[in-house]
Amino acid sequence: MERFDVCIIGGGPAGYVSALKCALNGLSAAIIEKERFGGTCLNRGCIPTKVLYSKAKYLNKLKKPERGFSIGEFNFNYDEIINYKDEVVLALTGGVEKLLKARKVGIFYGTGNIAGKESDIFQVGIKSNDGSSIQIEADKVILATGSAPFMIPAFNIDHKNIITSDEALSLRNIPGSLIIIGAGVIGCEFANIFSEFGSTVKMIELMPSILSTEDKEISKFINKNFKLRDIDITTGVEVAGIKAFDLKDGDGATVELKTGEKFAADKVLVSIGRKLNTAGLGLEQIGVELDGKGKIKTDIHNETNIKGIYACGDITDGPMLAHKASYDGIIAADNISGIIKERNYGVLPWSIYTNPAIGTVGLKEGDAALSELNYNTGRFSYAASGMALAMEEPEGFLKVIVDEKSKKILGATGIGADIPELIAEIASYMHFGGTIFDVESTIHSHPTLSEIVPEAALDSIGEAIHRFNPKTARKKDK
Question: What is the rounded distance in angstroms from the CA atom of residue 345 to the CA atom of residue 369?
């Protein structure tokens, strides 16, 4: 029986990153993956959606060319776009596999579970994709099995007419009409993509607003943006059920609300969250504890209550983000290697790829934690940025939240061209406890969009160079 220092179950962002980090730290590692490396993010999430997002942005430019240009007839081949998406995914998943092999990580294709433990050594069962079964031994185990689209029986998801994000990324033809159930991150990203490619899009959301977990200004901005693009939005309603048409009526499905209203479309995309892939791991037999939401409980080192078993990514506490999962994997790998590190999600940026894009890090207005603090906000508009105007990207703003006394940055959110990159800079300041004066003393190249960062930060005290802040000015005059 083969034995390793550590065995990782799951080859997504948490799994493969922890395997590579273990190998870099000098440990012998094995990884079990049932499909292709990269998990949901690389195969059916972050990367493929960004390929389609990029193409949708390009199409938008063709439809509305920049000033001084006129474009005649043009066509797009959506089937070829999907081919390119598949090529990108294959190149990246193949690259991950090559890295694992180069670092001597043992690769096993199939599903894994913790079969038992003897003398502090774990037996890990592997059911291969060909149906055969084997066992390996490991001193430590990392669970990183991720999540999958959430299914509700009443929604009758048939993966043809009523689909999840997985199927949406593989459609070879743009649906004439599309209903999206759920107006969170996934729903809004797909609404942006399919509406640009010509679908008539209707969104149905249970909460009173779209992107309800984001800053209210962001939610209002996207709501207005979508309506200007003829995306129909219905909020504060509950779906009673979804049914595909009878075969004699052709393809499509009907959505019925609990109010009795009905809507029909060629496709219905259900994007109401994700479920945890924790079944079949042997958690109950080995005694791994779960929290009230079914997530695996871990400490600040990402170790479970069972010494030697670690868990990372979607199946643990915290947001379901690929970069959070990779961070988890590094924390687990280092602690297993004797490099003691404590996880800290205090500075965890995230992005939403609508057009324009959204970026956030740390606290935002509306968060309960801010109610206990004295803070100021600084804001700077893209319309006041020379680079944004040169790029013909005047839409958007950056808002920075600053502790009133220490002037440390508590968070930032914004919407506009390349905003995720600006948020990444702010995250660096926050990680090192930076203040707005640290931002001010950092020279930003001109002309760049990054100049928006010091302007927004200094606006929190009324000292933005290119914005007059009458409220703060009046305060100073008193």
Answer: 14
Is-contact 254 242, C-beta < 8 A?
yes
Nearest to 409 by CA among 385, 432, 381, 380: 432
pLDDT band at 113 (very low <50, low <70, confident <90, very high): very high
Condensed to tens digits (0 to 9), the pLDDT of residues 223-250 reads 999 999 999 999 999 999 999 987 666 7
Q: What is the DSSP letter of 296?
A: B
Handedness of CA 328, 329, 331, 332 (dihedral sign): positive
Tell me if residue 301 is catalytic. Answer: no
CA 180 from centroid of its chain's CA atoms: 18
Q: Name residue, tokens 């199939």.
A: 110
Residue of 301, 323, 446, 466 marked catalytic:
446
218: its two tokens: 């962001």
| Domains in the chain, CATH or no CATH each | 3-148+276-336 (3.50.50.60), 153-272 (3.50.50.60), 350-473 (3.30.390.30)
What phi and psi, each to the nearest 5 degrees, are found at residue 223? -60, -45
